[in-house]
Design the sequence.
């Protein structure tokens, strides 16, 4: 048995005015809870250090850049790295990354138990739009503030398992799980900021959005025989509600832990990485059963083309 005790550290809302130092205090409180529950790994959400700023239209580059981190760890996050190292806890969290070349990414990092960053992922599937959209109930400007990730979907050996990451909207795309599945992934972690209502469809509310989120993650887990841990930033951020619904999914696609609130809340499960072996060697033994000669459209064509 290769057991990893995983804490999904859902975070409640972060208001625009809340400084990173205050947010890190909240993350430290969740980390302490996780340590008390003997977690080996704690998973925090997408853009964990700030409010979900892509909902705000900004034109001044200095104002935009204020939401980004130019180094990691930095002064605000160092206490989190220090405490994770002291307690021997691996962590993963998302943040807005500005590179030394001035590139902007929606990023997440993964540490080992010694607090060293061993993995970085940059969000590939950026939802939303890049221009102000008067048709929407609220803006979702990820395509304005970030460029698509350039690192693909790597996996890393950590805590004696193969781990990979994706971020929020990525979880809705089966290609994401399969890219990592083809590298033997056993645990996929992801954070999300998902509005509780659809900005383009006012009667699509919480129930349907929670269902689609869970459907995507449970399918990805089952079809790749891996654990999936999806962690929300939830609650009302300056009048904009985000859904909760953080879950831990086993390699059979069953939800084994689920958040009950829209606030700071830790969900915990002891995840046996060897539970992936059966699916990976039977129904989803890719080497035996995949028929790649029929899959060429997946990498040669982006949109729908109906036959002539
Ligand atoms: N942060 C996100 O990527 N949110 C999207 C919303 C816009 C649908 C999501 O897929 O949850």
Sequence:
């Amino acid at each position: 048995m290769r057991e990893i005790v995983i804490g999904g550290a859902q975070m409640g809302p972060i208001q625009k005015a809340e400084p990173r130092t205050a947010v890190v205090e909240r993350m430290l409180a969740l980390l302490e809870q996780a340590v008390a529950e003997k977690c080996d790994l704690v998973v925090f959400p997408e853009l964990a250090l700030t409010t979900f700023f892509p909902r705000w239209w900004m034109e001044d580059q200095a104002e935009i850049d204020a939401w980004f981190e130019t180094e990691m760890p930095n002064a605000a996050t160092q206490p989190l790295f220090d405490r994770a190292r002291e307690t021997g806890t691996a962590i993963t969290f998302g943040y807005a990354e500005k590179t030394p070349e001035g590139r902007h990414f929606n990023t997440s990092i993964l540490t080992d138990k010694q607090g060293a960053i061993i993995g970085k992922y940059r969000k590939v599937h950026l939802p939303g739009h890049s221009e102000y959209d008067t048709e929407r109930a609220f803006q979702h400007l990820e395509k304005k503030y970030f460029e698509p990730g350039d690192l693909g979907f790597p996996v890393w050996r950590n805590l004696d398992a193969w781990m990979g990451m994706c971020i929020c909207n990525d979880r809705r795309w089966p290609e994401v799980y399969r890219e990592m599945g083809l590298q033997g992934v056993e645990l996929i972690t992801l954070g999300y900021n998902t509005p509780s209502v659809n900005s383009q469809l006012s009667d699509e509310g919480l129930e349907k959005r929670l269902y689609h989120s869970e459907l995507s993650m449970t399918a990805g887990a089952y079809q790749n025989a891996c654990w999936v841990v999806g962690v929300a930033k939830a609650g009302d951020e300056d009048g904009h509600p985000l859904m909760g619904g953080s879950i831990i999914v086993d390699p059979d696609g069953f939800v084994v832990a689920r958040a009950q609130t829209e606030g700071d809340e830790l969900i915990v499960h002891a995840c046996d990485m060897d539970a992936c072996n059966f699916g990976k060697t039977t129904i989803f033994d890719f080497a035996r059963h995949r028929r790649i000669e029929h899959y060429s459209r997946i990498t040669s064509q982006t949109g729908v083309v109906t036959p002539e």
User: Anything to note?
Assistant: The first strand starts at residue 3 and ends at 10. The pocket of 3-methyl-2-ureido-butyric acid is lined by residues 46, 127-128, 140, 168-169, 172, 192-194 (CB under 6 Å). Residues 187 and 216 are 15 Å apart (CA to CA). The chain has a mean pLDDT of 98.
